[in-house]
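Margin note from the TA: students keep mixing up input and output lines. Inputs are the sequences; the output is the structure of the whole complex. Example:
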Amino acid sequence: MRRYTYCMQASEKERHMEKIILAESLGPFVHEIFVKAGVPEERATVLANCLVEADLNGISSHGVIRVPVYVRRILQGLTETKAVITPIEDFPASALLDGKNVIGQVAGEEAMRIAIQKARTVGIACVGLRGTNHFGTCGHYSEMAAKSNMIGFSFVNTTPLVAVYGGTRKAVGNNPLSIAIPAKEHFPIILDMACSVAQGKIEILKKKGLDIPSGWAVDEEGNPTTDPDKALKGVLLPIAGPKGSGLAIAIDILCGILTGSGVGNEIRHLNDPEPQNLGAFFIAIDIAKFTNVDMFLGRVDHYVDCLKGSAREGEHILMPGEECFINHGERLITGIPFPSAVLDDLNEVAAQLGMTDRI
Amino acid sequence: MRRYTYCMQASEKERHMEKIILAESLGPFVHEIFVKAGVPEERATVLANCLVEADLNGISSHGVIRVPVYVRRILQGLTETKAVITPIEDFPASALLDGKNVIGQVAGEEAMRIAIQKARTVGIACVGLRGTNHFGTCGHYSEMAAKSNMIGFSFVNTTPLVAVYGGTRKAVGNNPLSIAIPAKEHFPIILDMACSVAQGKIEILKKKGLDIPSGWAVDEEGNPTTDPDKALKGVLLPIAGPKGSGLAIAIDILCGILTGSGVGNEIRHLNDPEPQNLGAFFIAIDIAKFTNVDMFLGRVDHYVDCLKGSAREGEHILMPGEECFINHGERLITGIPFPSAVLDDLNEVAAQLGMTDRI
């Protein structure tokens, strides 16, 4: 069976699988780390769940590998743990929240919860989130809507990594968007995509000694390159030229300018010693306000069957997000493979926080 | 000055510019054609304006070149002209309209107008449009929101032309989406993109005797091809693999299933002798519900300046939609170039309808 990765942010499966860890051990361990770092119990649960979920889904770049940098930021006071997220604007179908530089996952879940609640009353709702932080995968939040029989959109902006179409310098984030749609028997459809090629893909081709396709990157001088070394020192290009560029720009404005957060170079990287000042934006659309939900879900199933039926004989087509669900199901039972370096880092953080347990 | 085309649906500028026509002559001529064909005055104005606007913008594929097929459909009773568009569902932030198979542009404008009206009260609103027809450029409707100091989204689904990622048969439309954002001194940002490469681009490479880039299409047997001939007989591939594919799928569900319209193969082509049964979806977000509008517009201007500043020396970066605005300004004064075949077809339609005027 041929497998297609629909999890855009996923790094390739680690080739050095040193240890298999069960989610049921990993979750409480990571939770305790955050509690020891000063995160309130409930918020530590949200954060640990998000990270472990990403690892279960196979999106290891957004999994517990992030624990050390998150903890460092919390201990240095760069990310808030206890501040109360408050509404700045509040209307029947929209709200603007002050994220108060609190942990991104906590603020993101709160924002999408409000969007879902409002949409249940008025049909559609959106919530903008000002001044937040790296919040893991975009798909986590849109999926919250799908679980409530809604169509969910989530967007977030990031530090500039990508040139805009026609440019050759870093100007716009590799801003992701996610759209989630529930189905009946099939997995929900969860598109989660960034607007340029993931840097990780270039690194993999480099290690294989292969050239990258033209159109992925320019070198430091702004010249097109297929040399992965030059690409890594240079600038990523948006997907499909003006299309990916336009999406990245629109997401930046929606998340950054509309919410009163940073945009472009005003956003700080996770490794910078300052609040990140990201913005995020969430939309929930209540399916029941348009049609019978059961009929909708049935039609989505039928549509997915039709799409899958367009595969060549002997091949399989996966829907957006499907590989994540398959990974999730498998890894819940068999455990999650980690390179030992990732676990060593977790254990080091645990030791620094005075924990005796090790993973 | 290097120019980048951000108008995704634009066919390349016609190379046989036989005649230059002023919009002020073309508009009334096309309007009269539709009135003679039985379209009520006001609706004929909407339709003529949309088509001429597309030609002014340089998107000739969606301009008056469509008049003959529109008229044929109207005369054959395949497209309704007089039916009243009515709400099926109506909530404070959402509505579902029965498009009653009326001219797409008329229904689309009505839907976006309602979305804007509702958003002005509650913050965001969406309107689904059931059972409609080809409605020209997606950007026309999102721009209506931008003109009202809102952020607009528009989506529409179309007949299957494109394979989904991993598939090799036509399964999903080259479904477009548009996002429009107002600016202060700069042109509004209007992204208008489809989810695969335009077939027209393959035709142009064919005429030049050039290969197409790999990843654009597969041949009839589903094998990757760089031969434009084989590509044109084969199937288009989505942009950026799973990303374009996922967007096309999400748009299909939003426009088709959520609104109770056709999806995938249930949609008829403009040339088929049946109602098209398309769906469309519109979202308007009221900027004033989030922030001071003037401040927002100023920040967008500053952001655009920053993006433009990332160009190499001596080069220019255009924002999404900017080339359309430039074309529009120029062509309003100098006129619109048309290949004579397009004008001959218009004149033939006019003659058939008993008009004495010719363009």
